[in-house]
Amino acid sequence: MVSSASPRLSELTLTSGAQQFLRHATPAMNALSTLGKTLDEELKATVSYFGEDPAQTKPEELFDLVAQFSSALSVSRSLRCTLRAVADS
Hints:
- The protein is about 85% helix and about 0% strand.
- It has 2 helices and no strands.
- The protein is elongated and about 90 Å long.
């Protein structure tokens, strides 16, 4: 037969495990929250640096625009080199 103390022991073990988890997880979660806030502030500063309003422009929109510009610049450079090679020959 299982004694009535057994469920209480498993409850205590679970409670103890949860408390231990919280002791270790709470500082990590607080640090993660702080990093998230810092990242948000830095992204807004980056959007502002490029002359956009952070309230209206999402950072991912700005980064997409920068990636498109970089791609277009690369294509332009390649085309210019090709045209220069053709003109020199």
